[in-house]
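ingest -> fold -> write
write: protein_1
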Amino acid sequence: MLARVIYAVNWYNFAAVFTFVARDLNQNVSGLGIVVGSFYLGAAIFQIPGGLLAAKIGPKKTAVYGTLLASAAAFLTSLSTNLAQITVLRFVVGAGMAFVFAPGVILVAKYFREQAEGFSVGLFNAAFYLGGALGIFGWTVLADVWGWRESVAISGGVGILTGILMLTLVPRDSIREDFAMELLEIRRIISSRWLFLLGLGMFGVTAFSSLITGFMVYYLHNSLGASAVLAGSVGALALLASLFASPLFGALHDRVHNPARLMFLCGLTGIAGLELASIMNVPAAMLSNLIVGFAAGGTVTVGFSAARELAHAEYETLAVSCINSTQLFAGFFFPPIFSATVLSFGYSWAWALSGLYVFPFIGAILLSKFRIFAGKSS
C-alpha cells in the first residue's frame, strides 16, 4: 500500500508542476500534451510484458524491479534541461510503472481475506488515489516553494527507498516449480473478447480521467488565474473522490455478478463531469473534478476486479495487464488531441468536445452481458 501511494505521487506530480516547468523551459499546453502522452504510452506498451514477467518470476520481484526503474527515471527528470529529455524520461517512468500495478493487484488480493478480493482491490486503488492527491496538491506546493526540480527529485528518491523496502519486507513469491507458461493459455487471455470489451470501456474512462488529472492544474493556473495552491487543491479533488469511490465499488463488486451496467452508469457520470469543466470557472472545475474522480475510481475498481476473475491463478496478472494496457493507450492518444483542440478553439470547446468522443468507448461496455464474471471461464 505504501509503495502504491509513492507510485501514484510519481504518476501525477509532474503534470501538477508543469506550470513551473513551462515557465522554466518556455513551453505551453502542447508540451504538456506530449509529456502526458509519452508517459501513458510507456505505461501501456509494457503492461503485457509486465504480466508475462510476473507469471514467470513472480509478482513481488516484478513489482520491485518496476518501482526501482520508474523511481530512478523520475529522479533523473529533475536534471532535464529540455522537453525532449523530459519526454523520454517520462516514457521510462511509465514503462517502469507498467511492471508494478498488475502484480500489486494480485499480491493484495492474495494477502486479503477470501470473498473480499474486490474490496481489497478497492483499497489498493484507494492508496493510489491518495498518493495521486498528494502528488497533485503537495507537489504543486513544493514546486512553488522550493522549485519543480527539487520536488521531482524528492519523489523519485522516496520511490527508490520504497522499492528497497518492498524488496526486504514483502514476503517472497511462491512460484510453482512445475509451472511453465502455456502459449495457448496466453493467446486465450490476450485474444479474449470479454477482456477486449472490458478494456475498451475502460479506455473511455481513462480518456476523461487523464484529461482532468493531466490538464486541470495547468488550466486553472494559466487560464482562470487561480493561484498555484488553489489550482493544486482543486486538481487533487478528483483523486480524493476516487479514493472514496474505490473501496465502495470494490465492495459492490463482491455482491454484483454482472458489473457491466454499473460500469456503464459510472462512465456516463464521468462524461457529465467532464462536460462541466467547459463552463470555465473555478466552482465548475471543482464539481467536475469530484464527479470525474468518483466515476473513474468506481469504474476502474470494478473493471480490474472483474478482469482478475477471467484467468487461472498463474495468469491473473496477465489478464489485469491486458485491460490496463488497452485503457492506458487512451492517455497516449487523447492528451495531444486535447492540447491541439485547446490551441485551435480554446479550453471551453476542448472540454465539451472531449465528452463526445469518449462516449462511444463507454458504450462498448454494454456490447456484452459479461456473464462470465461469475466464474473463471471465457
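write: protein_2
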Amino acid sequence: MKVCVATGTRAEYGLLKPLMDKLVKDQFFELVLLVTGTHLSPEFGLTHNKITEDGFNIDYKVEMLLSSDTPEGITKSMGLGLIGYADAFKFLKPDLLIVLGDRYEVLSLASTALIFNVPIAHLHGGEITEGAYDESIRHAVTKMSHLHFTSTKTHQNRVIQLGESPHYVYNVGAIGLDNIRDLKKMNSIELENSLNVKFNKYNYILAYHPETLSGLSVKEQFRIILDVVENEEDSFFIFTKSNADTDGRVINQMMEDFASKNPNKAAFFSSLGSLRFLSLMEKVNAIIGNSSAGIIEAKSVNTPAINIGDRQKGRVQPKSVINCICNFQEIANALNKTKDFAFVNEIDNMENPYGDGFTSQKIIDILKSVDLSKLNTKPFFDL
C-alpha cells in the first residue's frame, strides 16, 4: 500500500512521526512523504531539515506559504497549496493519504485528494475547538475522509453523528501519547545546555496561538498574558512560536521582543522539536496558553495545563487542565494553583482520556485490514 503522509507544521510532524516510523519499517507499506507549509519557511525555522535529519526521505515539497497571515494571505496560500498538491498527487500517485487535524493546509490537501479519488485517513476528527475557524475545517475534512482515527470515544461518536459509517470510525487514542511513551527524555541539565538557558524556581512553557474568533484583538490577548509573565517572581518562561494563523506573526514579534529585553525571565524559540518539547513539558510547572498539547499530552507527564480563552473550548479535557479567560487576575490565579502541592500531587492519580500511547500500532493494524477498493463510494450514514 503506497501511503502518502502529509505534514505542514513542526507540531503536526512531531505527532505523525511514530506512525511514519512504523510505516517505513513495515514491508506491507510504501511511505511517500509530502512536506509543505511552515516546514519550508525560513521564518518558522526550515523544519523540513529536522525531518531529513530523522532519516526520512521527503518525496515532494509544496511551497504554499505566503509571508502574510491576513485572511487574504492565508486564502491565497490555500490556493497555492491546491496548485502544488495537484502536481504532487499526479507525481506520487498514492493509494491513501494520511492527514492530521484541522489546519488550512489540511483542507487544501483533502480537497485535492477528493478530486484525485484518493481515499483519506484522518486523525483527530470529531473534536471541538470553538474559538478558532479550525473547528469548521476539521469537520469539513471529516466529510471528505474515508477512514477516521479518533482520539476518544466521544469524538468517535461525533464523527458518526456527522454521517460517517461506524465501520470506518476507529477510536485509537491520541497519537501524541506515543512519543511520550517511546522517547527517552532529556534531563534538566541537558535541557539547559541545549536551550542555553538557566531554569528558575518555577518554569513554564508558553505556547499561544491566535484565538481567531475572539472579541479581543490578538495583540490585546497576548499583552495581557505578557503582563502576567512580567509580574511573576522566581519564574522562567520558554516561549514557542505561534503557528501561521491570522495574526500569528503579531504574537511571535511580541514574544521575541519580550525575550530579548528580559533574558532572565524568558527565552524564545522558533521550534523546539519533539524531544526538547516533551522533555520540557515533563519538567516544567505547567504549560500555559491554548495549545492542544496542554489538553492532550500534558497529563501523560503529570504536568498541569493553563488553558486561556476559547480556542480549545469544547475539547474533551483531563482534570489537570485549568481553564481561564484572557484576564490578568484569572491567569495569575491559575499560575498560583500550579504551585499548590496538593493540586500537583492530585494530578498523578487523574486519568488521561486520550489513551495509552499505542495509537500508531493500532492504526497500522487497521490499515492492513482495510480493503481500499471498497472506499470509492461513501454513503451517508443516517442515524
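write: annotation protein_2
The CA atoms of residues 201 and 285 lie 9 Å apart.
The longest strand covers residues 30-36.
pipeline exit 0
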